Amino acid sequence: MTQACAHIIDDDEAIRDALQWLFKTRGVATRLWPSAEAFLEAWQADWPGCIVLDIRMDGMSGLECFEALLARGNRLPVIFVTGHGDVPMAVAALKKGAYHFIEKPFNDNDLVDLVEQAIAHDDENRQAAADRGTVEARLATLTAREREVMDLILEGKFNKVIADELAISMRTVEAHRSRVFDKMKVRSAVELAQMLTALR
Amino acid sequence: MTQACAHIIDDDEAIRDALQWLFKTRGVATRLWPSAEAFLEAWQADWPGCIVLDIRMDGMSGLECFEALLARGNRLPVIFVTGHGDVPMAVAALKKGAYHFIEKPFNDNDLVDLVEQAIAHDDENRQAAADRGTVEARLATLTAREREVMDLILEGKFNKVIADELAISMRTVEAHRSRVFDKMKVRSAVELAQMLTALR
DNA sequence: GTCGCTATTGTGGAATACCGCAAGATCGCC
DNA sequence: GGCGATCTTGCGGTATTCCACAATAGCGAC
């Protein structure tokens, strides 16, 4: 499941099959889900790709599914598909972060293009998230004391001042500082600042 | 014109007046424009507030006006209002960066709420832009050589290495470095890195 | 208890950064 | 030619960083 794919969630088997065939001819991998519930149950945060989500379905609606995904921190771009949408619904969905909102009947090529854009978009997100992930993983290896020292380093303070504020000796600060650089895999305070400021 | 206001662009005088009255009762300053052309002619990049833009108008349409504003780097949130919109139009507008898309007839309170949110949103944007502006203004005071040195500092290099790469003496690098810190109003390379990384 | 991790401190020295003062050279502008 | 901005360099000295080596102490896990 490391392969990016378009998750097609629709309770109409004929549509699922038609979309599967469509995407197959265009070289886009798909995975089919007969209901929002089924998808939510299987959903994993690290799945790459995008979601093509029908709004009107038996059981949980596409909008409810979207909300549930939001609550779980879903990052996959969601493309809504509906035959009975309206402007307020589309606006609300997009403002909540949906990737697109398209009405049936749609042009096949348009949908494929959208899905490809969404998958590419997800790729970028995923890359950025991975970068953040590695930095956070390194942060996680720091001890509490090391993090305290790091914070003060990031305020541009001298070891001397840090030693004062933490009421420890300068030598100790140096030791922590050295370990911080080591664990964060940077060679200077400047690199550290850039790495962490990039996280926002 | 330093006061944030809602720019109402509509070719129907009755609607303009009605909206002006509505916003006045809710304490939102407004400015009325009878056409997209009139607004575009007067438009200034530093106006704060938001835009309420009717789509169907004689002459230039709201959508065309929006495109023109995009091309000019407009930052004001745009709220589209229309009686004849459809889903694709709304989706396209939002994906291009419009703030909202609302259909007539609309609930007065909804529109006022939207406008207030948009103005608040613009305030935040403007604050962030101002921060970027001050940093960029400082950057602009740097000489070419100082910027070169700064770039190398931001790569975490020692003065010695920088001197080598630029084929100048270490003392010269120190002089530039000192002036860079001075002009950028920072006291350490760490602060500099944070200030510039925050710009993205 | 022993082992491993963490926090702590010290010594001593080499490498760098930082600062004030002074000054030569180039270049464009009036 | 004179003026101002910029780039350049050196001297001498202080402050800070960085590193290797060495060592003590607390604390939780097995």
TrEMBL record, chains A, B:
<dbReference type="InterPro" id="IPR036388">
    <property type="entry name" value="WH-like_DNA-bd_sf"/>
</dbReference>
<feature type="modified residue" description="4-aspartylphosphate">
    <location>
        <position position="54"/>
    </location>
</feature>
<dbReference type="InterPro" id="IPR011006">
    <property type="entry name" value="CheY-like_superfamily"/>
</dbReference>
<keyword id="KW-0805">Transcription regulation</keyword>
<dbReference type="Pfam" id="PF00072">
    <property type="entry name" value="Response_reg"/>
</dbReference>
<protein>
    <submittedName>
        <fullName>LuxR family two component transcriptional regulator</fullName>
    </submittedName>
</protein>
<dbReference type="GO" id="GO:0006355">
    <property type="term" value="P:regulation of DNA-templated transcription"/>
</dbReference>
<keyword id="KW-0238">DNA-binding</keyword>
<keyword id="KW-0902">Two-component regulatory system</keyword>
<dbReference type="GO" id="GO:0003677">
    <property type="term" value="F:DNA binding"/>
</dbReference>
<feature type="domain" description="Response regulatory">
    <location>
        <begin position="5"/>
        <end position="119"/>
    </location>
</feature>
<dbReference type="InterPro" id="IPR000792">
    <property type="entry name" value="Tscrpt_reg_LuxR_C"/>
</dbReference>
<dbReference type="InterPro" id="IPR001789">
    <property type="entry name" value="Sig_transdc_resp-reg_receiver"/>
</dbReference>
<feature type="domain" description="HTH luxR-type">
    <location>
        <begin position="135"/>
        <end position="200"/>
    </location>
</feature>
<dbReference type="InterPro" id="IPR016032">
    <property type="entry name" value="Sig_transdc_resp-reg_C-effctor"/>
</dbReference>
<keyword id="KW-0804">Transcription</keyword>
<dbReference type="Pfam" id="PF00196">
    <property type="entry name" value="GerE"/>
</dbReference>
<dbReference type="GO" id="GO:0000160">
    <property type="term" value="P:phosphorelay signal transduction system"/>
</dbReference>
<keyword id="KW-0597">Phosphoprotein</keyword>
